[in-house]
Amino acid sequence: MTNGRRPPAINGSSGRLPISIKEDNGSDSAPGTRTAPFLVLGPAHLNERKVNREMISRVKQLLIFSLATLCAPAFGANPARPGTINYIEGSALLAGEPVSQKSVGSVALDPGQVLSTQQGKAEVLLTPGIYLRLDDDSSVKMISPDLTFTQLALEKGRAAVEVDEIHPQNDVQIVDGGVSTQLLKTGLYEFNANNDTALVFSGKAAAHEPGNRWAVIKGDHELALNEGPREKPQHFDKSADEDELYNWSSLRSEYLSEANTQLSGYYAYAGYAPGWYWDPWFFGYTFIGPYPFYSPFGWGFYPFGYWGDIGYGYYGRGRYYGRGFTGGFHDNGGFHGGGGGGHR
Predict the structure, then answer these.
(1) What is the pLDDT of residues 321-332, one digit of tens each?
(2) Of the candidates 315, 334, 309, 331, which has an alpha carbon nearest to the alpha carbon of residue 59?
(3) 158 pLDDT exceeds 60?
(4) What's 172's domain CATH number?
(5) Around 343, how many Cα atoms within 13 Å sit in the side-chain half-sphere?
(6) For all residues of the chain together, what is the average pLDDT?
(7) Distance from C-alpha of 310 to C-alpha of 323, rounded to nearest angstrom
(8) Is residue 342 part of a domain?
(9) Is the model's pLDDT at 185 over the cut of 80?
(10) Into how many domains does the chain fold?
């Protein structure tokens, strides 16, 4: 895997499973002629095309489930939870011990433990659909890894938080400069311990002030957390703050979208619920939700049961979604912005 990020190619392709073309002995062609019956558009071949397509889908299903079972790190015994490390780039330490990309998915921050980076970056899963990304020369401490109360303290450097899914029962807080900020809506947030500032690129947050008061921070606004209750959120230029950490977070979001595209159709059966799912090619967890959505960077995520390569529709939030949600596909499997239903 290149830099441990992009899903590896299979047989020189862009990551899709290889599909062999079988011999059609029932045709009028010469013996031994190799044809592609599911590519023939004549009416007589439509049923055969449908059967072959469904057979290929089932084979792909079996393959991906087998790979997930073989490649996931302690997949059944150690499922993802708040604090699970999902990606490491460069050098990082967990509780003072080196941690590498090989440990992804199998190690997590326990209460009181610190994850720190030097010349590198790290991605940590919080509640399903929320990612914390640690910048170079930064450190974060886990305070509470509970699903209903997830709290981390940024001790040094910077961290970005991408929120793709959040519920009223989730209480996700980042402590910076002794001030706790609760994330309230889907969006993109950034915290800087070097100057104790909270930035809301999109979404909505609330910083806890003295006297049990909360300062609401809306999109395109920042708050100096160490200035006391008299300080009000100020507007900032988002384009000016789209720096290396922002761009790296956008790239990670794109890769997670690609992994979601690979997996979403294979978990369409009863018994599966929205949450983190391991991608053996991506070698990391991605989020699959009950309905389609776009990340704060514009990368699209499919819900359960969408077969992107075949074109089946899916249901979500009480309505049917057809192929309109596939607008803006990239060659690498992800899709960005663009047409179709499902944009929150």
Answers:
(1) 333 333 333 334
(2) 309
(3) yes
(4) 2.60.120.1440
(5) 15
(6) 75
(7) 10
(8) no
(9) yes
(10) 3
Among the three residues 241, 267, 301, which one is the final residue of a domain in this structure?
A: 241
Claim to verify: residue 205 and residue 63 sit in the same structural domain? no
Q: Residue 87 pLDDT > 90, yes or no?
A: yes
Residue at 263 is within a domain: yes
Strands 319-321 and 314-316: antiparallel
Q: Are residues 225 and 96 in the same domain?
A: yes
Closest of 162, 164, 184 to residue 172, by C-alpha: 184
Write the single-letter amino acid at 187. G
User: Which residues are registered as beta bridge partners of 85?
Assistant: 124
State whether 55 and 190 are in the same domain. Answer: no
Q: Are 50 and 24 in the same domain?
A: yes
Share of the chain above pLDDT 90, in %: 52
- Of 207, 241, 275, the last residue of a domain is 241
**What separation in angstroms does the CA of 11 have from each of 19, 36, 266, 298, 331?**
10, 19, 21, 30, 16
Task: Report yes or no on 77 lying in a domain.
Answer: no
State both tokens at 257: 């979208």
Is the distance from CB of 140 to CB of 131 less than 8 angstroms? Answer: no
What pLDDT was estimated at residue 41?
A: 33
Statement to judge: residues 223 and 136 lie in one domain: yes
Same-domain check for residues 287 and 253: yes
Q: What are the helix (H) ranges across the chain?
A: 46-71, 244-263
3: CB partners within 8 A, 6+ apart: 89
What is the secondary structure of 279-327 as a DSSP string?
A: ETTTTEEEEEBSS-EE-TTSBEE-BTT--TTTT--EEETTEEE-GGGGT
Structure tokens at 72: 């996931």
User: What is the C-alpha to C-alpha distance for residues 301 and 334, in angstroms, rounded to an integer?
Assistant: 8
Whether the CB-CB separation of 100 and 122 falls below 8 Å is answered with no
Give the separation between CA 241 and CA 101, rounded to whole angstroms.
28
- The whole-number average pLDDT for the span 260-268 is 83
**What is the domain extent for residue 322?**
245-326
Q: Could you give the CA distance from residue 203 to residue 218 in angstroms, rounded to a whole number? A: 6
Regarding whether 237 and 251 lie in a shared domain, the answer is no
Examine the domain organization and report whether 98 and 211 are in the same domain. yes
